[in-house]
Each structure stands twice: as structure tokens, then as C-alpha cells.
Amino acid sequence: MSDELVRMVNINKLFGKVQALTDVNLTIRRNEIVGLLGDNGAGKSTLIKILSGALQPTSGEIYIQDQKAEIRNTTDAIKYGIETIYQDSALVTQLSIARNIFLGREPIKEPKFLNRMDQAMMNEAAGELLKRVGISKNIPPTTPINSLSGGERQAVAIARAMHFDSELIILDEPTNNLGVEETQAVLRFVRNARDKGHSCIFIAHNIYHVFQVVDRIVVLRRGKKVADDINPKETTIEQVEHIITGMAMA
Questions:
Q1: Is 246 helix (H, G, I), strand (E, B) or coil?
Q2: How far apart are alpha carbons 11 and 125 in whole angstroms?
Q3: Torsion angles phi and psi, residue 145, rounded to 5
Q4: Tens digit of pLDDT for each residue in 71-129?
Q5: What residue spans define the domains of the chain?
Q6: How many other CB atoms are there within 10 angstroms of residue 173's CB atom?
């Protein structure tokens, strides 16, 4: 079996006359955390939205496990095993932890025709998932999201992705507006996701956070990929910053 999980080939995206992406190629391997870096307007979010089904490319192809994929919407992406965790976690704050983890995919009790949610099963699974993602506090799965800290909310979002066996977890600025302790918790969750057999794309403006967790760094600038296969163990933060800004050629 090939170790290639996702391959995006010659991705172009036009918004009217604005070329947001130009012939971008991106490969994600199994059990790999890739840091996607670039200044504002570099094309990071556009590329990720195409992979997660929120946007359609003007041209280009996407392959999942060596098979051409048709990702027309976010539901298609989820079916291909791609989950996206945004800065705000995309959680329903009034609902419980368990309901948020299973939102839209709630298990149904027997007999199915009564269409009753299996709340006990959701609570039990949610409790186990919280332990797996590293939450040591005894937080009941019935706890509403609006009573959790920022880091705990990110943990719930990651737990949801892990429960549904997502092959690829995309984290878009997951450490923004978090305190030091919560940020470290999120970074631990990312490493834990890889240890559990998932691949990740990690997007963050804070390059120090990226260097703490990723295996490889990819840099976009003005809609083009300008660097690939940057090894954070063999490269300095300053060197990567120069590539991002265009002060040094990749």
C-alpha cells in the first residue's frame, strides 16, 4: 500500500479576475503532520477549503488513496475521511459535548422506526473520547459546550474527528486566542492524533507552534507553492520566515 493519503494536482482557483491559486500541488502522507504556512492572502485557506469541500477549484484534481476523488461539498469530504477543525471549532455551544461529537450522525436506538437517539451510547463514547484526546479532568459528556474553555472546545472538535475515523484532520488556526496552557493542550492533541494513525494539516500564523508538532512544512506565497519538504528539525524558524516573506528563495 502506498503511503500517500491525499494528492492535490495542479489546483487553480479564480475569483473573478483574481488568481487565488496557481497550479498548486500538495501531497499528504499517512501518519504525517504537515504545516501549511504563508502570509495573509497566500492561498492557504482557499486550498484547504477546496480539500474540505467548501469551495470548488477552477481546475485541478484531487486523489484520495490513489483514487480520483469528487469533492463537491463538505459532506463528500467527510465521506472521504476528511474532517476540518476551524478556529471557532464549529460547535453548537448550547448543546452538550456528546451531542456535538455526534451532531448530524447521531446513533439511533432499536427499533429504528421510532427514531430515538441513543443518548447513553453517545455519553459513553464521548467520555472515552475525552480521555483519548488527553483531557484529564472528569468532565461529564452532558456538559454544554459554552461552559468549556477554548482548549477543551478544541479537544471536543478533535475527538469528533477521531471518533469517525477521519484519515485526515485539517486544523485551521486552532491555537488562535488560546492561553499558554490551552495552546499546549491543543498541540498535544495534534501529536496524539498522529499517534492514533491520523494525518493532519496544521495551519497557524504562529510559526513556533508549527515547529513544535509538524513533520514537514509547505509554504505558499501569492497563490503558489514556493517550498515543500521543509524539515523543521533541519531548518530554522528564521529561514522559514524568509521563505514566507520572499526574502529567500526556496
A1: coil
A2: 38
A3: -60, -35
A4: 999 889 989 999 888 765 678 889 999 999 888 788 898 888 888 889 999 999 898 88
A5: 4-95+166-245
A6: 18
pLDDT number for residue 47: 96
Class of domain 4-95+166-245: alpha beta
CB 28 within 8 A of CB 199: yes
Q: Given 3-state DSSP classes, what are the helix, strand and coil percentages for the chain, each rounded to the nearest 5? A: 35, 30, 40
Q: How are strands ordered across the β-sheet holding 67-69? A: 18-29, 4-15, 59-64, 67-69
Judge contact between 250 and 243, C-beta under 8 A: yes
pLDDT of residue 88: 58
**H-type alpha helices, 80-199:** 97-101, 119-132, 150-163, 180-195
Contact at 8 Å (CB) between 8 and 24? yes
Q: Which residues contact 30 (CB under 8 A, 6 or more apart)?
A: 3, 4, 5, 167, 197, 199
For residue 71 the three cell numbers come to 469533492
